[in-house]
What does this fold into?
Amino acid sequence: MRQLTAERPLAELRETTTTPGGGSADLPPGAGSVPPPRRRRRIGTLLLPPWTRAPLLALGEPAVIFAVLAATIILACASSSGALFLSSAASETLHRTIAADCPNASYPSIRLGPIISIDRAKYEQYDLFEPVDPPTDLPDLAGLDTRARGAMTAEGFSAPYHTAISEGALRAGPPPSGSAAHSARLFFQDGAVDHITPISRGAARGVWLPATYARQLGARPGQRIPLAFSRNNVALPETTVPVAGIYQDLWQEPTTPYWCSYSGLFQNPGSADPPPPALLIVTDQATFAAVQHATAAAATHYWTAPISTGGLTLSAARDVGTRQADAYRRFGQPAPADLGAQNSGSGQMPIFAQQTALVRDGLRGPVVPIALGGTVLALLLVGAAGSFWADRRGREVRLLSSRGVSPAALAFKAVLELLAPAIAGTLIGWQVARWLVRALGPNPHLDRAAPTQALLTAGLALAAGLALLALVAGLRS
It folds into this structure.
């Protein structure tokens, strides 16, 4: 083998090896040099301990965990507050809308009428209607009551109460002459007699007369007074009903919540002359049906189911409106299309829900941009947490990078280490947002879907935050 001299230039040396015969042979170029590091496959890299143990490695950096936890809490609060606040505002709007109207206005109900009940023979005898009018306007009131109650309870409502109000004015005159005619209107509702101030009592069944009207008729409890109804200028036969009692005129007393929806029946705010027809309060449903059947008086009937409106939300109000429409279909009648034109009366929940939805949609304009701006600022905090991670883990990051690990793999490592505190921060922030909106928002009652929508929004914000965190960590690496 040749002797290598130190004076020989290194650039002129040639690597040799001994042949089996004792000679020398040139080595292939680069045979004696250290091979450059090879870049590992990405999948193989992710199976190494720095990645498989990444969730546990974060425990050694409590400052990084705290930074990510705080950033994601703020991010979840900002991103989920919009949906929660809109739901809270909608509940408060609905509450104020219901409170501004009469107590029973929001109760679901079935309205039927005006309808007429009369014998078919009398229908033909008095020629009451035009020939095109079908004789199906002759309903069985007892059967209608059973069907309406069944339709309401089948939709999950409580047992409804029945209200019947005659349309137009009947004429009444004291027996026996009947010379003095006075207009009156029939009213029946379950329990109505318990909400008047009685002056004197008579029969258990019949009609209660207001005091002023009783003086005009000269009627006393226990007497029978005639009632008749005129339709199409045709005088129909009279019927007589007993006077069950005399009560103080409702317009002489403060209007109670019970009579709120019916104040137009006994008050005339537009003019004092002429006064409205006297309100004859019927004691029971059978008496009202008998008078309507005998006189062919037109009447509108309501079946109303009381509900609790204290914690009502927009979704619950819409559910009430949907079930009310289903009750109409079970009853065999289409839901009235003029609910919005009514100034009072029950069954107004669909209108209240529609008005509430309009207010909520109007609030989206200012609420959503504010929530979005807060979310963007919180995302910057999450990105800063990624940069903080790269600083705290700088030695390991430089070592892995020198071994050929790509920035994408390092970014994935950062996500693996910080994923658990990021998820925990998101859940905590979502709960904090719910608590803040319920404690400080317009109304503590939220729609059932609002927390889920807020959590979904927070999850999307978390995904964006992790992507930004990975991007910053990868670039810093």
